[in-house]
Design goal:
α1 runs parallel beside α2. The chain is an alpha+beta fold and 227 residues long.
């Protein structure tokens, strides 16, 4: 099963306006069964009022997808948030609101039982707060919320935390962090805040391909059941 996580930054390149065409072309090139995306827009002016979660799902040839809004743009309509796209079936999908400071932007996670071919996996995707202290609290809350979910489990997302910040926390929750290259900024990466973690799965070598849009590079990796 081929999986990826990507903060798409609403399809905006380093310079200039958002391009839904380039966003879709990049997704086609990943050719993944599961894709978790962050900072994705639905009917927002800056991305030309396009339903980007649906656009990405179509580009990925997904059978199902779920969008969870984190922020609503009251004056200009539309919302942005996260999405999970699946070539397969999604069952028992739920959206979890994560703890935050009163004035901080809302953050959410999508938790879904996913079937791809003959493989059944609990998939979690999220985008944590850009304040590391808040993000660490949100990660703790998320891991507690999925502790009873059946293995194998897969965590995808922009966690806004570096590997040294999360490896022990993930291990205590039975997740192993997948090794990958730097992801941000996309044009000259010097850090990795985007992550894939697995429980009951074995990951191959992860790729961090260059992309024409976003300030993050995606992580793409093959995973298989541990036994």
């Amino acid at each position: 099963m081929r999986v990826a996580t990507w903060n798409v930054r609403h399809g905006r390149p380093r310079r200039g306006f958002a391009s839904n065409r380039l966003l879709a072309e990049e997704v086609v090139g990943f050719d993944v069964d599961l894709l978790g995306i962050q900072e994705v827009d639905r009917r927002v002016l800056r991305s030309w009022f396009v339903d980007q979660p649906r656009l990405v799902a179509v580009a990925d040839d997904s059978d199902a997808f779920e969008f969870a809004p984190a922020r609503r743009f009251v004056m200009l309509t539309g919302e942005d948030g996260i999405a999970l796209c699946v070539r397969g079936e999604m069952q028992r999908t739920r959206v979890l609101e994560l703890p935050r400071e009163k004035a901080a932007q809302r953050r959410v996670a999508i938790i879904s039982d996913v079937t791809v071919g003959d493989e059944h996996t609990t998939v979690v995707t999220t985008h944590l707060h850009n304040d590391a202290v808040v993000a660490a609290r949100q990660l703790d809350a998320l891991l507690e919320a999925v502790d009873d979910e059946p293995s194998p489990r897969l965590l995808l997302g922009d966690l806004n935390l570096r590997p040294d910040d999360i490896t022990a926390t993930l291990a205590a929750a039975r997740f192993a962090l997948v090794e990958a290259g730097f992801t941000a900024p996309a044009w000259a990466p010097v850090q990795r805040v985007d992550h894939i973690a697995v429980d009951g799965l074995v990951a191959g070598d992860a790729a961090v391909p260059e992309v024409a849009v976003s300030d993050h590079r995606p992580i793409v990796v093959e995973v298989r059941p541990a036994s």
